[in-house]
Design a protein that fits this description.
Layout lengths: L1 H19 L11 E4 L7 H20 L10 E10 L2 E9 L3
Antiparallel strand pairs: 1-3, 2-3
């Protein structure tokens, strides 16, 4: 009998914990592209430029709450090497 009471109390307590551990999915917009302006000798600089264009585009289209690259989902950086220089494109879904 005591085992049944203990088991019932344990299950009820576990259910309460599960209800308090609710996480909310981020709200996201459609994928945006940001292509680096010009060519860059250093690949990392082209990547930074592409992310900057992506952030500016997200801010202009949806506002500053949506312009965080770290909050974006489905993000990628693709770079092309043309001669000795790089041009990159950042793509991702703005989220908040």
């Amino acid at each position: 009998m005591n085992n049944k009471i203990f088991l019932g109390a344990f299950m009820m307590f576990g259910s309460l914990l599960a209800m308090n551990d609710v996480t909310f999915a981020a709200e996201c917009k459609a994928v945006l592209l940001g292509k680096s302006n010009g060519m860059h000798i250093v690949k990392e600089m082209a990547q930074i430029a592409a992310r900057g264009v992506w952030k500016t585009t997200a801010n202009a289209k949806y506002g500053s709450d949506w312009s965080s690259w770290s909050n974006a989902q489905s993000k990628s950086l693709k770079c092309d090497r043309i001669g000795t220089k790089y041009q990159c494109t950042a793509s991702g879904r703005p989220c908040h």
